[in-house]
């Protein structure tokens, strides 16, 4: 600003007025200052100005895996709401690594972002408490939990697991497998628990095929395990913890000569766009991923508005109910 003021032969206060209150400056003076800014190539640091005023416009978004289409859609819908409200987002990808998630959240804390939307790995991280102590509004997404610290938005994954296995039982399967992992992820554990309950009530066996990640490679690994089983003991239906695992399973089974759904029926989870476009269109438990993102962002905006008005914010826990989308991969057995 000093350089601009010197080149335009005005005071630093005049430069500040051109940037923040241009109507207070004569047009000729304003033009001289703007030319000096352009000549020097100076870009005002709006973030510093906002932090100095205590009114930052940055929101931190962090999820466990941005390459997963489920989280990509969730992030986009959240960003749309933030953009419409005059905020911009900085995105952190934890890459399914708790230590990396911790680093991302500490970076958000150091940068004094205005708010955080977090799709956490495992249990609620300790850093959430640090964020709220620093008066950084925080919302957990893809997580249903009563929390005195922050709002949460999620889906009833237990019900989703039940839906998937109930469907397989209803279409004639009694040997069923659950493929997913790591089991330590709450979403995976909830889907598995729902599966177990449905299998028990449907008088079906449930085999758990634990895989290290929720990706296509893990699905192919699960296919390798299934192919090695004797046909008379091999599960005839598989519920996968997400659609990426289901796509990998489908690819692996077909590559090794098994037919879907005649030899093995498959149900995925998330209902990403790729599910309907698979070689055999995948049945899937649909999560309202765009609603999750929008709801999380709207809850955050409400909390920020309450803070601006000096009103105590009442945290909410919003739970969506998933639904089953049936396609060819789980058609009734012939």
UniProtKB/TrEMBL annotation:
Provide this UniProt record's keywords sorted from A to Z: DNA-binding, Transcription, Transcription regulation
Give the matching PROSITE patterns: HTH_LACI_1, HTH_LACI_2
Which residues belong to any copy of the HTH lacI-type domain? Answer: 1-53
Q: Which InterPro entries match?
A: HTH_LacI, LacI/GalR-like_sensor, Lambda_DNA-bd_dom_sf, Peripla_BP_I
Matching SMART domains: HTH_LACI
Q: Which GO terms describe its molecular function?
A: DNA-binding transcription factor activity; transcription cis-regulatory region binding
Its name, as the record gives it, is LacI family transcriptional regulator
| Species annotation | Tessaracoccus flavescens
